Fold this protein.
Amino acid sequence: MNVLVCVKRVPETGGRVTLTDDAQDIDTRYLGFTVSPHEECAVEEAVRIVEANGGAATVLTLGPEAAADQLRDAMAIGADRAIHLETDGRDWDPVATAAAIVDAVRAEADAGTAYDLLLFGNEAADSGDYQVGIRVAVTLGLPCISGVKALEIHDGVATARREAAGGWEVFEVPLPAVVSVREGINLPRYPSVPGRLRAKKKEIARSTPVARPGGPTKVRLRLPAEQERSVEILGSGPDAAPAVVELLVRLGLVSA
Amino acid sequence: MILVFVEHDGAAAGRSSLEALTVARGVASAGGVPVGAVLFGPGASAIGAGLGSAGVTTAFLVGGEALDAYAPAAWARVLGALAAERGASVILAAGTDRGNEMLAYAAAHSGAAMAANCVEITPNEPFLVTRQRWGGSLLEEARLDGSPRFLTIAEHVVEPEPAAVSTPVDVVVVEPEPSAEDLRVRVVGRVAPEAGKVSLADARVVVGGGRGVGSDGFGQIEELAGLLGGAVGVSRVVTSAGWRPHAEQVGQTGTRIAPDLYIACGISGAIQHIVGCKAAKAILAINTDRDAPMMSKASYAVVGDLHTVVPAISAEIRRVTGR
């Protein structure tokens, strides 16, 4: 099994962000970076599949020079090698991103590495475009299952489940295939110290693709209006219980 | 024509699709063009015929056994073909799992751009959209070029409103022959929801627990949720620690909820959590920290330790209701 897993470097935000003066990006001067959450799980899934079936897991990113950190993180938990499609750090739209990944997959095939499975996160945490995996699949003529939270590989067939209306929908496709996963498909392991040391010695194949934008075209970013509510304090500690239940009755959630 | 992919459960159109239709009417009237709806699967005919109240003038009902089960590539192929045949300028869907997936396929099939989770559309030249990034904690203004334009409407952003005047609906049945290649991906099985379990996305009340609950404190949260006929929701810290299943996560990488009341217990309120619960009509925060970010998003608050406050609320509900 050859598995390719595509990840994106995104800032680690927890509170309200600030923007750069030109409103083109988040001001990341005081922020750390990480792999987008769904993709963190995609890396873990790739490593587990290779552990169970043999083969190799390759991690790919399209991003600035510093995104090599995220490739090392993925290799520290078990990815075997990495492909870095290096950019100048500006956002690439989903059409351009998918095209560059397709080119990389084809170049790998020409060099003798054909992938059985291409894993993506369902959507990147920052841009949230919901389409890169599907575009790659359509261009390569591969089947694609999105939003996957459980995946099994048996005899060249991928069986996947995703949440739907409180239950699950089940899909089944032959390999090679594209699967985009969601957080919750697994609990990613933490990298070990030996894992980090091994990752330093693993190969990163670098290239600098040329963007072929297809839209949407970012004009500017802005912060949504703050939804400050005026908070009514109902009380302190367990003594507040009667006031809370009065509220529940008022809202029609408890009938006295 | 503005063409809208309408999701339904066999009995009624989905709320998110009705939201998308509300936006579609605005775009259509700005351009002086009609609104068409595309529906798939069993039960579509009565729902499609009834969409006049949402301003739909043509309902396309896609039939044929091969397309009854959800098959994103094949369904999107039909949507794209109808759009081309009718000269649709804009193709719209709700920003749901299926809506985003279908439009990504349809856009990829035609080599066009697609904008996911829009909150505002300015259908002039240039055609501008405002769309959600970071689950809605950041907005992007973007230009969408070319024709047709593919976009989805973020859920819970507009109220689904009926059209001012109900329109007569022309019902058109189509039975396309999907290709085997497009049918490779389709739903081959279903697992029904657990009997009696309230779905997090649809619950009227959600009782949420965060780090403050602790690994073994969720019995109290479940008890209160049970008394209120609601669902349990948790923050990302809780699922990342493996304390509760991921299906209960509220937030950017979990479920977006829109209950009448969200009771957030021991949740500090990271932005990724806030975007998942901001569609709640009211929020009650229970927290020891008066300055927690969750408190500034709440309509009501109790300052105190959830481990004593939550059982006291449950006891009071029992006392008042005599249960």
Q: What stands out?
A: Chain B has a mean pLDDT of 96. DSSP finds nine helices and 15 strands in chain B.
